[in-house]
Amino acid sequence: MENKILVETSARHVHLTAEHIEILFGKGATLTHKKDLSQPGQFACEERVTVEGPKGAIKNVIILGPARPQSQVEVSLTDARSLGVVAPVRESGDLAGSAGCKLIGPAGEVELAEGVIAAKRHIHATPEYAEAAGIADKEIVKVKVASNGRSLIFDDVVVRVSPKFAPAMHIDTDESNAACAFGEVYGEIIK
């Protein structure tokens, strides 16, 4: 059984709608591709924004492309405390009732009534990888990450299966720091 999975750290980032890209960066603006990410079709952008909450702001937050149907901000729980917001732990796109914030760009500002979340740790899997690993879409598994002195088992890891994915587990910076998951790290899926 294939039970090893690449573990990647997903740092704070923003996804924007085409409308919000124009408000923040100017009429006719589009995202500028900087580098591809591990998930096919996803990329880091040259553009950055400031994310502002009631208690503080985080400058220079990266934007990930392409444009999305709804703008969202993914932060760690430490970031959320710095901003002064309560970011629920959710899957990407599950934004109803989540915290709001202000996004500040060089050409304008956008007030999000909701959209700030701490991403639920998750596994991206192709159907072939899922079958080989014996896992299924929406299944909740554990992943053991071995490191020097900080090994741990992540519980409540949701599996997401799509032919559009590349196999990888995503955790945020708080989780990565807790496990000393730096550089190229692999975890073991435990059912």
Describe it:
15% of the residues lie in helices and 44% in strands. The radius of gyration is 17 Å and the shape is globular. The longest helix is centred in the N-terminal third of the chain and has 8 residues, at 18-25. The chain folds into 2 domains: 11-119, no CATH class; 121-190, Barwin-like endoglucanases (Beta Barrel). The protein has 191 residues and is an alpha+beta fold. The strands form 2 sheets. Strands 2, 3, 4, 5, 6, 7, 8 and 9 form an 8-stranded mixed sheet that branches.
Strand content: 35-45%
Q: How many structurally independent domains?
A: 2
Helicity, as a percent range: 10-25%
Put simply, the count of helices is 4
How would you sum up the global shape? globular
Main sheet: strands, sense, barrel: 8 strands, mixed
CA gyration radius, whole angstroms: 17 Å
Number of strands: 14
User: What's the rounded overall pLDDT mean?
Assistant: 97
N- to C-terminal distance:
12 Å
Structural class based on helices, strands and sheet pairing: alpha+beta
> N-to-C SSE series?
EEHEEEEHEEEEHEEEHE
Q: Which regions contain 5 or more consecutive residues with pLDDT less than 50? A: none
Short summary of the structure?
15% of the residues lie in helices and 44% in strands.
Q: What structural keywords apply?
A:
alpha+beta, 191 residues, globular, 4 helices, Barwin-like endoglucanases, 15% helix, 2 domains
Secondary-structure map:
Elements: E1 4-9, E2 13-15, H1 18-25, E3 33-36, E4 43-52, E5 57-65, E6 72-74, H2 77-83, E7 89-90, E8 99-104, E9 109-119, E10 122-125, H3 127-133, E11 140-145, E12 152-161, E13 168-171, H4 173-179, E14 185-190
Parallel strand pairs: 1-13, 6-9, 7-9, 10-12
Antiparallel strand pairs: 1-14, 2-6, 3-4, 4-5, 4-8, 8-9, 10-13, 11-12, 11-14
